[in-house]
Design goal:
Number of strands: 14
Strand order of the largest sheet: 1-6-3-4
Helix content: 25-40%
Oligomer: single chain
Number of domains: 3
Order of helices and strands: EEEEEHEHHEHHEEHEHEEEEHHHH
Number of helices: 11
Largest sheet: 4 strands, antiparallel
Radius of gyration: 27 Å
């Protein structure tokens, strides 16, 4: 049996009234213990600015009781918060950080509640994913990009080298690790995960392409980077040819790069390509 109750400025519930409730609040279902008295301040918060709140009470008392339920209610989400977090997540393949959620209007108790109820999936320390968001194309890239964020919450890492070749679909390279270029000042208190190969360099904005939820070096910078690394000559030549054929790089830019770096393997490869 479900009972409905509209709150007055101060609502006192009789002893016989069910003590376990489900509250439908701005699209979010909150479940927990019902306080004996809801003050005007509490009612105002729950009522989103003074509007009455409609409680649906489950008489069998089969709702889950969460700790600090009143605090969660008081800091519950609003439709604006929901729009904010989905806008952020849509740019990051469904992922977002706890800091971004806080800025979107979700308090830390609300974040905990969203995770506990399955609305959000916790994917790592301080990183969540909206449960009903469509599957991401490369979730690993988004997650490690968010891992590289600084204290202000801004990702520092840019995928580069063989990983960038793979993202741009240049050559048949199959990197076993994720290559990421970070600023010279990049620091992490925890150990760098084994899946990452960190390169330190200063990248100019012209070198970076922003994708959905992560950044990657542009094809020209990528070719220059792998040419200075340990990639095989065959894969390097394949990447250069494919980039030229698809119009991802200009011949003049490659020629200039080869001239500036005559000792690089791709300088010889470029001379061979140009002579044909």
């Amino acid at each position: 049996m479900l009972q409905q109750l509209r709150l007055s400025p101060v609502t006192t519930f009789p002893p016989s009234f069910p003590r376990s409730i489900s509250v439908q609040y701005e699209g979010a279902l909150l479940k927990g213990a019902l306080p004996r008295v809801l003050s005007p301040k509490t009612r105002g918060v729950l009522g989103a600015g003074g509007n009455p709140v409609l409680l649906t009470v489950d008489s069998p008392w089969n709702c889950t009781i969460l700790k600090k339920m009143l605090r969660v209610m008081q800091m519950g989400t609003t439709q604006e918060s929901e729009r904010n977090i989905r806008a952020i997540a849509s740019r990051q393949q469904g992922y977002f950080t706890a800091r971004q959620a806080l800025e979107a209007g979700y308090s830390y108790p609300s974040q905990y509640y969203q995770s506990e109820t399955g609305n959000w999936i916790r994917e790592g320390y301080g990183v969540y994913r909206i449960a009903d968001y469509a599957s991401a194309d490369r979730p690993d890239l988004v997650l490690w990009s968010l891992w590289s964020r600084d204290r202000k919450g801004k990702p520092q890492g840019v995928f580069s080298h063989e990983t960038a070749l793979s993202i741009h679909e240049l050559s048949d390279v199959m990197p076993a690790s994720l290559h990421m270029t970070v600023p010279l000042s990049f620091r992490k208190s925890a150990r760098i995960p084994a899946v990452l190969v960190i390169h330190r360099a200063t990248l100019e904005p012209v070198d970076i392409e922003v994708m959905e939820g992560y950044s990657v070096t542009r094809p020209l910078r990528t070719i220059i980077d792998v040419a200075a690394a340990s990639i095989s000559a065959d894969l390097l030549e394949q990447a250069i040819r494919q980039a030229l054929q698809r119009g991802l790089v200009k011949r003049d830019d490659l020629t200039n790069a080869a001239r500036l770096n005559p000792s690089f393997p791709f300088a010889e490869i470029m001379r061979g390509i140009l002579s044909r």
